Amino acid sequence: MNEKDIIICRCEEVSYEDIVHLTELYQCSSREIKLRTRAAMGYCGGRTCRNLVDQIVSEIKNEPPADNIPLTYRPPVRPIPFRLFGGE
Amino acid sequence: MASLRIKEHPILTVDQHVPEIQFEFNGKIYTAREGDTIASALLLNGIRTLRVHEETASPRGIYCNIGHCFECRVTVNETAEKRACLTPLEDGMVIHSGQRLPTPFKKGEE
Amino acid sequence: MNQLVIVGAGPAGLSAAIAAAKNGVNVTVIDEFMKPGGRLLGQLHEESNGIWWNGVDEATNLFNEAIEFHIQFQFETSVHHVKKHSNHWDIQTDKGMFKSQALLVATGAAEHSIPLPGWTLPGVMSIGAAQVMANVHHVKPGHHGIIIGINVLSIAIARELKLAGVQLESIVLPSCNLLNKEASQPGVVFQKLAKLAHLAPSPLFKMGGFLTNKLSFLEKLVVRSFPKNGLKAWGIPIQIRRAVIEILGEEKVEGVKVADITPSGVIMKGTEKIIDVDFVCIAGGLYPLTELIGVTACPFKFIPSLGGHVPVHNEQMQTPVEKLYVAGNITGIESAKVAKAQGKVAGLSVAHDLHYLQDHNAIDDAVQHVKKMRDHALIQFHPDINKGRNELNGASITN
Ligand SMILES: Cc1cc2nc3c(=O)[nH]c(=O)nc-3n(C[C@H](O)[C@H](O)[C@H](O)COP(=O)(O)OP(=O)(O)OC[C@H]3O[C@@H](n4cnc5c(N)ncnc54)[C@H](O)[C@@H]3O)c2cc1C
């Protein structure tokens, strides 16, 4: 199986290979991986892949998940239509 | 091929007499019925691709069907980025699928 | 200003609204779906007495009761931010701002995904998507499909799809990578199902239950000699020794490439073959949808048996943040009946904290009812749920 072909973040099209490679290279946190690759930071707000990124990083670094959330949630948790910025 | 509409069900009540409505998708007219979402109406009409990825143009369709994944976003009567799975179909609705953006929009190093 | 705003009109949100409104609290419920019920809609389970438990009917009953108590509903409205002020909450939505003294977040669960080559193709959907398409909108997800991921939810929904007249090839495992170490190993998957054995009426579960009660090496034997064509549950083959390697298609799903696997999930070379399907369901399990709690000051606890990160809260459904409550699957993955029972507790707690509650035993009784529902649940998502709940209660005391 070609792991390069597995997309993890559907919104930003970040691959499994990219995430594994960068985690091994930088030995960094999943927060940093998300900021570097934009995985879990696309249109859907990370609902589909946030856990996947956390999981890959914690497997590679052999660190169990902590109680606090790796990349804190920021508002808006749903994209806001542009008209709402205009002020009604 | 047989319709994907479920016409009878051993446990659930399936109403047979729901009024039909028409809508437009990417310039073509289709028929579905009241109570459908845009997502169910398109699937019923054999349409699986609701948009293409803005950068790579890879085709995308319904994924979660409950508003979480935003894969099914379409333009409805001029309003962009509506989730097809959360939007009830209305008679005469004009729907467009998302398109690939012109290259200057593309992010990244290239 | 509202006294209570509830985000989520699932079983938890609806029953909380009713409990609070019955005691005189004025309540508004916000949901982005177009009708009430949340994920209750779509559920269809056969109880041990042979009677069908129909989520659509359950949702209708709850909604009708809510209307009687003059609860306000805002459907097709997405909440994107909540903010605490000294004595009220701002709840920001795509339809404008709501203000409320108390806030209950009952946003339920979301599905884990299982990334595989080809999974972005149209026609690949989560198992829940297929459930909602068939049971709520009465449209089949496709003509002939395959389910990837063997777990309680996928087996239950496979049966629902069969009832709706959908043709299913089989339920199989995903191929192994860092993301599905456990979900791709026949041995581990079998053991998990076996632990939940006494709860489900399928032949597979029964056999699993028998074996776990005896010897665990027998279990390994079962997995090793598991028939390649699978064991059937309600006529649907469950192929614990087969995995999907790739989803195939140009513009949409046309097929899947599968292979046989060893009991520990390693692909057996030379067994690859292609199966034609026009849809694929991915069943990766559920996790609590906590994003709105994540923008508040409420702490989290990571408890795998509850589905991952859950907001810290006590048995009364209060969080450490004043006038912030949680109920339902956001507090841990359990069946709809548990969510409904938790909702009642939360609604009563709000009524109490806003000085409306007359009957002071009501909360204790409702808390006991949650435990009873938990012990009698038709579907259990994790065998260690009680342990997880106790751990969380401990955390809420120290916090
Ligand atoms: C796809 C899926 C299938 C399931 N199938 C089963 C099953 O077959 N059997 C079973 O026992 N359990 C099943 N469950 C578990 C299910 O979560 C519980 O049974 C129960 O429905 C939980 O109730 P709840 O009230 O906590 O949340 P839900 O019923 O999920 O309701 C939450 C509501 O909140 C709304 N919401 C969420 N975020 C926002 C926001 N930001 N703004 C506005 N509205 C929002 C949602 O639209 C939803 O209507 C399933 C869960 C999922 C996700």
Automatic annotation (TrEMBL), chain A:
UniProt xrefs under InterPro entries: BFD-like_2Fe2S-bd_dom, BFD-like_2Fe2S-bd_dom_sf
Stretches assigned to the BFD-like [2Fe-2S]-binding domain: 7-58
Protein name: (2Fe-2S)-binding protein
Organism, as annotated: Terrihalobacillus insolitus
Automatic annotation (TrEMBL), chain B:
Signal peptide: none
Keyword Oxidoreductase included in the entry's annotation: yes
Cited SUPFAM superfamilies: 2Fe-2S ferredoxin-like
MF-aspect GO terms: iron-sulfur cluster binding; oxidoreductase activity
UniProt cross-references to CDD domains, sorted A to Z: fer2 (cd00207)
Protein name per UniProt: (2Fe-2S)-binding protein
Pfam families: Fer2_4
Keywords associated with the record: Oxidoreductase
InterPro entries: 2Fe-2S-bd_N (IPR042204), 2Fe-2S_ferredoxin-like_sf (IPR036010), 2Fe-2S_ferredoxin-type (IPR001041)
TrEMBL record, chain C:
GO MF entries: oxidoreductase activity
Domain of life where this protein originates: Bacteria
UniProt entry keywords in alphabetical sequence: Oxidoreductase
InterPro entries in the record: FAD/NAD-bd_sf (IPR036188), FAD/NAD-binding_dom (IPR023753), Metab_Enz_Cyan_OpOx_G3PDH (IPR051691)
Domain FAD/NAD(P)-binding, first and last residues per copy: 3-165, 232-343
Family annotation (Pfam families): Pyr_redox_2
Protein name as annotated: FAD-dependent oxidoreductase
Organism (species): Terrihalobacillus insolitus
